[in-house]
Amino acid sequence: METLESELTCPICLELFEDPLLLPCAHSLCFNCAHRILVSHCSTSKPLESISAFQCPTCRYVITLNHRGLEGLKRNVTLQNIIDRFQKASLSGPNSPTESRRLQPPQRPYTATISGSIAGTIGGGGGGGTSGSSARGSPATSSHSHPHANHTNHTNHTNANHSPAVVAKMDPRISCQFCEQDPPREAVKTCVTCEVSYCDRCLRATHPNKKPFTSHRLVEPVPDTHIRGLTCLEHENEKVNMYCLVDDQLICALCKLVGRHREHQVSSLTERFDKLKQTLENNLTNLVKRNSELENQMAKLIQICQQVEVNTAMHEAKLVEECDELVEIIRQRKQVIAVKIKESKVMKLRKLAQQIANCRQCLERSSALITQAEQSLKENDHARFLQTARNVAERVAMATASSQVLIPDVNLNEAFDNFALDFSREKKILEGLDYLTAPNPPSIRDELCTASHDTITVHWTSEDEFSVTSYELQYTIYTGQTNFISLYNSADSWMIVPNIKQNHYTVHGLQSGTRYIFFVKAINQAGSRNSEPARLKTNSQPFKLDPKTAHKKLRLSNDCLTMEKDESSLKKSHTPERFSGTGSYGAAGNVFIDSGCHYWEVLLGASTWYAIGVSYKSAPKNEWSGKNSSSWVFSRCNNNFMVRHDGKEMLVEASLQLRRLGVLLDYDNNSLSFHDAMNSQHIHTFEISFLLPVVPTFMIWNKSVMILSGLPVPDFVDGVASDLLEQQQQQMGLCRQESPYLTGMKTCH
């Protein structure tokens, strides 16, 4: 036993290890002793927290500490368990005196670490827990003075060591657990090491001021349930001092040595405590953050609800106001129409009253004449009758003859035909009263749209024409981007024409031979909606032959659209831009092209020797087009068709019946293609990295040719160009520094 005790003795305090630390050099050291070593290195300029290393007292190996200090070192759990069993065996041995057993406190197996017992029991019971360092306390405060000394030392010792959780659980009526009298005296201290509460007398008897009792930790009296550690479920009276990571539960040393957890991976309670605490703190932080977000969201929702109430009241008030205005308008119109009816009534009654008065006056005159005539008829005396009746007879005859004058023109029309009321349309409108909604999207009518070389007229229709306040036309150059939503969002490139009242609009100043994307937006007070995008294109740049460039042996027509070989035409003056030299019978167009997509056709007629294409302004005028690096042409020499550039030519297939040659210059996409316009066939395409503006060029050696310019691109040509462009993008990219058609060309002799 003495040999075993020497192995369990700390090299610093020469006592059994207490809360041993496992150093990296495999030696062990009491936690308090390690703390005293660090304290010995402290100074005014070097506080305890700044010390990051110390030497092992056994082998002088330098121990490096992390930011957690001594807490970062592992506990020697196995060594602590051996010490616990050694102490238990020593107390229960046959050589121990009875009096000693009577005076000594009932020893309990010491926990693997004080942090495990304090943090796992007192801290757990108090709800707050204590860290290992706070539970242990410093070496200076862990010891206490002799029990017979002034009791203040016990009080100071206690106040310096007990945790807030323990203080919170202090009970002044806790009884001494060591007293033999009945009832026991009131406890004044609780020994955390012994896990027993003592009165003053028992404390002095059981804890003399000498080792090993000076290392016992005394606190204010606490209930026994708060100081005892948790016991193992499988081994009675064994405290849990490890944590099984496999089964995720608390275990004791026997569980690890001989129990079902012996093959399992375990960790110390402190390590598991720190990890679980950190996890809980992190989850708690996240939960608090989420609760804060939920509170903010709920506050926003409450604010929105309040705003809904405000908006509802506002719209209800607006509805009442609008309906009251409608009722007021109807009331006013009712009054106006009623006044008109009354005025018509008064006018009709006035006329009828006048007619009645006239009729009454005529009736009175007629009645008097009738009475007078009847009196005359009663006269039997012929002489008297003749004397009196002649005047009456004349008056009656006159009254009968002028009956149309005497009888007034009576208008018996009582109807109000000019006051017919028909409110069916208004009733229908009133029945359809509702909130105004955004108009349906308009539709661009491609078949009605027209274009010139610099204008496009856009036509559209709308199902809600009466509810539309205005239209807005937006357009931009089409770059080949198929994602119209992404294109529409790039607002910087869009031109906008606002406040259009008609269903059509003509855009001026556009680039020739260029594709554009158009949107039409229908707008009213409730909002707006866009039409589907429409791709429209301006026509090619129109041009004519430039007389200043025509060879002196060429004759141009008055409209400068036809050129003919004429050996007798020698009157032209020489200019730098004129084609000259033997055999260079050519002329150029009167336009330089530096953008867009342009198409023109050449009517070849009976000519069998010609060269048609484009060139830079700097191309030599005293040699054939295509003989230099500044010109590209399609040529026919009798029955051979070829393309030529930079003095190299390549045969191509074309019909001998070729009478209409189509030329497509897509400057923006670096291509020049030739087509049989009558048979809708593609002949050849040059891929050119244009560096300068180009001009159309024409050469003939027999007959004549005619130019048709400013034409829209035919569908078959546009389709071929799109296919070629897609192939170029997939295989070679948009730009080529070298033209691929040069391969396999032969020099023209």
UniProtKB/TrEMBL annotation:
Q: Which residues form the RING-type domain?
A: 10-60
BP GO terms, sorted: protein localization to microtubule
Assigned keywords, A-Z? Coiled coil, Cytoplasm, Cytoskeleton, Metal-binding, Microtubule, Repeat, Transferase, Ubl conjugation pathway, Zinc, Zinc-finger
Q: Coiled-coil intervals in this record?
A: 277-311
The record's section on PROSITE patterns has:
B302_SPRY (PS50188), COS (PS51262), FN3 (PS50853), ZF_BBOX (PS50119), ZF_RING_1 (PS00518), ZF_RING_2 (PS50089)
Q: Composition bias, kind Gly residues: at what positions?
A: 121-131
All copies of domain B30.2/SPRY, residue ranges: 523-716
* Location of region: Disordered: 88-161
Domain (Fibronectin type-III) spans 438-541
Record-linked SUPFAM superfamilies: B-box zinc-binding domain, Concanavalin A-like lectins/glucanases, Fibronectin type III, RING/U-box
Question: What SMART domains does the entry give?
Answer: BBC (SM00502), BBOX (SM00336), FN3 (SM00060), RING (SM00184), SPRY (SM00449)
Domain B box-type positions: 227-269
Which protein family is named in the record? Belongs to the TRIM/RBCC family.
Q: Which named protein is this?
A: Probable E3 ubiquitin-protein ligase MID2 isoform X2
